[in-house]
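Section 3.1: Structural characterization of target chains.
Under the original work plan, the team committed to producing a structural model for every single-chain target entering the pipeline before any wet-lab resources were allocated. The record below documents one such target. The sequence was received from the expression subgroup and is listed exactly as submitted; it comprises 253 residues.
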Amino acid sequence: MAHLRLTGTATSQGVPVIGCHCAACSSTDPRDRRYRTSAVLYAGEARLAIDAGPDFRSQMLRAQVDRLDGILLTHEHNDHTAGIDDVRPYCFMQGVDMPVYCLPRVAGELRERFAYTFTNYPGVPRLDVRECTFGDRLDFAELDLELLRVDHGRLPILGFRVNDLAYLTDVKTLPEPTIASLQNLDTLVISSLNHYGTHSHLSVAETMNYVTLLQPRRTVLFHLSHRLGPHAEFQSTLPAGVYVGYDGMRLDL
């Protein structure tokens, strides 16, 4: 069955945070061990990684992802792209240039920050950058992904809907066309940074406003700060149908 597996559910610092001894960072609950936000979409034998942050190698090893058929980059920030070099084993084993789907702006960042991957230097990862934009549809195996605009503060980034599941990271606001594309959802995976929010991230209350507006059957929160507290405590504060995401969580399509 096609499904989405969350391979990371934390903010850019991860959980535990270096040097922090708060309740979440000190927790022994494995659900409070969070890599930077990312996921893998499974469709038959095909695998599509969603983002490739600094924990990419560890995430792929932990999830036992032995082959990869592409990467969708939501945006260019370091916690979503810094691990792109670690696609090398897939390029070597599979004998492919790794398809990377991203906005034109992000493609430019890749060519600048990882310029060596676009040279003839031996042993580098080979990236097949495929530019896409909001409203495009990505045909992946038997799945049809609708690419959606998410506003990460003033930065437009990619989210997507596949079947009745939507995946929206680093949200601050959702434009009206995106809201129109998110009707009749079974599962909404959406970021919820902390209790206060920032100029570029939703607070829990702001996330709940979108949940009320969209009324999915099930909501999974991710891109979570340690400031939300331990998993179990945070879960106890949420309404029915809203769940705290955790690394390794499987969501069937």
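The radius of gyration is 17 Å.
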